[in-house]
Design goal:
The chain has 62 residues and is an all-alpha fold. The protein contains 2 helices and no strands. It has one domain.
Length: 62
């Protein structure tokens, strides 16, 4: 018997964190703090990519 996968929960967590970092990016850019905006944008993009990978349906192996 297989244990339940937590991929969807991790995907949702990564998606929420990516959205938070997008907000930090916007706020830092509006304040003119470009190093923080750049760093938050990179982290948000990375977490967004992890979220997409975790939420995508796994391939069925034969």
């Amino acid at each position: 018997m297989r244990l339940p996968s937590q991929r969807r929960a991790l995907g949702a967590l990564f998606l929420v964190l990516a959205l938070f970092f997008a907000g930090i990016t916007w706020a830092a850019a509006a304040a003119g703090v470009w190093p923080v905006a750049l760093a938050a944008g990179v982290l948000g993009a990375w977490l967004g990519a992890l979220a997409v990978g975790a939420l995508r349906r796994p391939r069925v192996s034969e």
